[in-house]
Amino acid sequence: MKFETLPGFRSFYPEQCSVRNYIFDGWRRAAKHFHFLEYDTPTLEPLELYKEKSGEEIVSQLFNFVDKGEREVALRPEVTPSLARLAGVKAKSLKRPVKWFNIGEQFRYERPQKGRLRSFYQFNVDILGEPGVAADAELVACLVHCLQGFGLGQSDFKVRLSDRHLWVLFLEHWGLADSDQASALSVLDRLHRMDSEQLIKALRPYFKESSERFIDQLNQLLSVKDIDDLVQYFSSLSLSDEIADRIETRLKDWTSFISLMQSLGVSESIQIDFSIVRGLAYYTGFVFEAFEASGEGRALAGGGRYDDLIERLTGNTMEAVGFAMGDVTLLDLLESKALLPDFHSKPDLMLFFTDESARSKALSDAHYLRSRDWSIDYPLKLQSFSKQFKIANQKRLSLALVYGSEELERGQVLLKNFKTGEEMRIERNPEGIHERLKVVLSKISSDESSLHKPFKD
Question: Is the pTM of this model over 0.85?
Fold first, then answer.
């Protein structure tokens, strides 16, 4: 019987693991630079947790089943509900603001396609317990910083910024009832997938005979690209005094947010775009998505403010804003831009020998050097030095210790530097070898990243 990986899942050979770990390292580095602390949650959660957040319709997108304890459970499709549960339990004791991040595998039972798999890894970054726009700005800055850390520049991606708060005020201006706003926003979230006739048909249940006039105002809002245009746009509408006051207050938040983006040095990567609606009903404020600058392909990341979710799931009030970035679309972009490093793995040092006596001494030294954080390899079967040097060339090795009979008779080993061709005989003393290797290593080119080791005393 031939077994294959399930559709939408991936197997990671060492080369693919190196790429995956490179992405994880980049995510962790960005989180560290912004002082976010890592947390984790179970891969398997109660099904009700996801239904409470996203509604009954989410079940069709889940890997869910009844376990042997007769519990309805699901593999996590996202980490936000689990985060809400964790934070809600300790809401009264957590020191605010809470700045947490998670890197974990998620599962969604969807049709596999380019940029979307059934199993994927996600970088989730959230700030909890801070209602001000400074938290939103910090999150967007972290997102931009993370993408830049992979070598992506302003010409490669844009973060498109919108606001569910302003969208709700806009719909209130049009007289839309609270009960209809979430479903109307879900329609608006699909704007780019509909032609004009389809859009009119989809909006008619909400705006009746005014649908075409609504679309005219909608298109003007979608054309807004900067804060001055945004202020001008809402000034041009015939708003009630109550809605006008609320919009004016919200536009002050926008001005503060844009100012913070400029101070954080990321404003050039931000683009106002009200076509970003984020169809999930729990968003309450700024929302944003990062896209490849060409606009092609799926979003690289997305997020926004969700101030009511933790209270809804746990009963404890805690404001929140966050974003998630998946590995699949990010990897596609990095590959297309040729921004992935050469992941040629090699040991720090190989030990060469041709007989049992020499092997015994080499393995003793290997034991000591490994305890000092060196990556050591050697042939598992005896073979000639010529074959071992061939292996060294194949591995693009930098350093080797050669345990030749002549050197061993003198109490020495031969240290061979394949980068420079230099050879030196050194006393076969494990601690002395360790110190000599550090000196030689410091002279090897800094781009040999696999050789950078935190040496222990």
Answer: yes
